[in-house]
Design brief:
heterodimer, A: 91 residues, alpha+beta, B: 369 residues, mainly beta, 4-stranded antiparallel sheet, 2 helices, globular
Chain lengths: 91, 369
Amino acid sequence: MPRARFTSHLQKFFPTLEQGITVQGDTVADVVQALDARYPGIASYFVDERGALRKHVNVFIGDEFVLDRTTLADRVKEDQVVFFMQALSGG
Amino acid sequence: MGDLLILGTRKGLLQYERHNGAWRYKSESFRAQPVSYAMRDPRTGTLWAGLDHGHWGQKLHRSDDVGAMWQEVPVPVFPDGAVQSVGFPGGDRRETPAKLSYIWIIQPGGADQPERLYIGTEPGGLFRSDDGGESFELVQSLWDRSERSEWWFGGGRDHPGLCSICVDPRDSAHIVVGISCGGVYETHDDGATWHPRNSGLYADFLPDPTSEFGHDPHFMLMSPSNPDVLWQQNHCGVFRSIDSGKTWKNISQPEAPAYFGFPIAVDPHDANTAWVVPAIDSEFRIAVDRALCVCRTEDGGNTWAALRNGLPQGAAFDVVFRHALDLSGDTLAFGTTTGNLYLSSDRGESWQCLGGNLPPIYSVRFASA
């Protein structure tokens, strides 16, 4: 199963967040949904009310930027790590 | 009422408390997180805070123990199919799915509606809860106004903002809202139907400054002692209405200082008395003559007094945002964009600085301890 890793900034909102947690899913959208089941509300930190990635959130699959920021349909392989990061912006 | 000061700031929610007659710093919540608006519902004692995370979106939190513990609750969500306009008419105007981009104001319903709560948002939405804030529903009748797509637009921000919600204490079904840049709307039937109330306003940024729509009420209040009297600090002056918004009268000082600004406070017992904190007009947005003053009228806006005692009178660039001035009894407080918090115990005659190294302040609201 893919694993999920997170920016440490998310720890203050979800103190029990476990780095490297394994989740079920074939796409980034699946991973977000699985994470929300484990940490209720966390999906709303990644995506807006239409399910699109928030403007200042980045997701990497391994070392690659996610391509579909609107529906998160990018495929995720069994052994891959999905990183949820804040984009560096502002001051 | 009035022993707590609740501040929404760029770096968290701060509280000050009155202790043995003196005000002192009490606590901090949401460390270093932008709090767009914070208030305490006097009916329930619940603290509410809207958070504006740079990365993670808008969030809504509540506390039932004056900020010791907070609970995140679902934010208002625009329904499927709701669209917002971007760009300008005649140019690149187009529609995109409506998404919550800012929580402007959180407002209790009437005293006879203990479960009713309102939230005003960007883009220009009025949301209503009838379960104490557990869930919110868009007031579709206002959102569906046909002029919204053409005449409501962004000013300073990308989209119109619903920043003012006035509930008539005589009749909770009578509500007046102010939208920057959209204008004033009134309902007498609890939001079933709405009527634009912009006659007499002036909008120098429109081709027709007396247009029916598109005005920019930065902040609007209803006089509690006579709810037919409305006041607004507009982008283009200070205006007052004595007929619940049907007609507005420009009560600005032509040569300033009481002209441009964002906040307004009104006396709960006297519908002729109000305070504003002026700034230089929209081109500059700094303190007039780099000197901070509060202007007070006690005759319905015929005359204004500039109150300066205790406020910096040189090298001051402070601007006070629309929700960052409040009144409780004879005590006024305001917070500024440059992180200064000022308080007056004598209706503005004299001021003291409670904090001078604070983050930029977005909202200041009194509450009971």
